[in-house]
Amino acid sequence: MTFWSVFFGVFTGIFVGVQTNLIIEAIKIKRINKKRIKNLKYEFKYNINKINQEFLKDADDYLNHINGNSPQSYFGKIHLTGLLKTTLNQIFSDGSIYKYFDYENIGKLQRLITDFTPQDEERINTFIENISKIDNIEKVRKVANELVTEYLKEGIEAGKNNLLTIKFKNKKKVFEGS
Predict the structure, then answer these.
(1) Exposure string for 121-153, b = 16+ CB within 10 A, e = fewer
(2) How far apart are CA 168 and CA 151, in angstroms?
């Protein structure tokens, strides 16, 4: 064996090894991205269902309670922080959100993250507790109706509408459904 035949054999082995590693890495990344999109779609579906079945129901329950005979005896809580945002936070933190969404949809997603925070939930529940301490029942009803109809329900509906209109860069809606 000559030097050149050994050299080309080693060079070919290294070249093929590098190419194989690059192909395997590309396949891994493609699978991770596919799974991430699937998880993101699941989060959207879960969040929309949670908004419809829990958040709006809680707001309606509170509204029905304050319009009943004893608005001061409401002891429930509005739980706005139950949304799943794990994958969404992940794609924001690693910057891959720019690969999937355009700037308008990124803005909608950012609003979703900031609209449903523990601080907002705490502020709303503190406000509900303070309303229940008012002695004048008609004043309680007026303030609570304004809170629920003009602030809480509108905010929750806006968050839901934002989720329903989000589209990937290829103009395909993230959430396909009602």
Answers:
(1) beebeebbeebbebeeeeebbebbeebbeeebb
(2) 29
Q: Which residue has the tokens 């739980």?
A: 79
The residues, any chain, with a CB within 8 Å of residue 45's CB and separated by 6 or more, are: 175, 177
Gap between the Cα atoms of 108 and 50, Å rounded: 18
DSSP summary character for residue 94: T
100: CB partners within 8 A, 6+ apart: 37, 40, 91, 168, 169
Query: Do the beta carbons of residue 115 and residue 159 sit within 8 Å?
Result: yes
Distance CA 67, CA 144 (A): 9
Dihedral over Cα of 90, 94, 98, 103: its sign: positive
pLDDT in tens, 114-157: 888 888 888 888 887 777 777 777 777 788 788 887 788 888 88
Per-residue model confidence as pLDDT tens digits over 78-116: 777 888 888 888 999 988 889 888 888 888 888 888 888
**What pTM does this model have?**
0.76
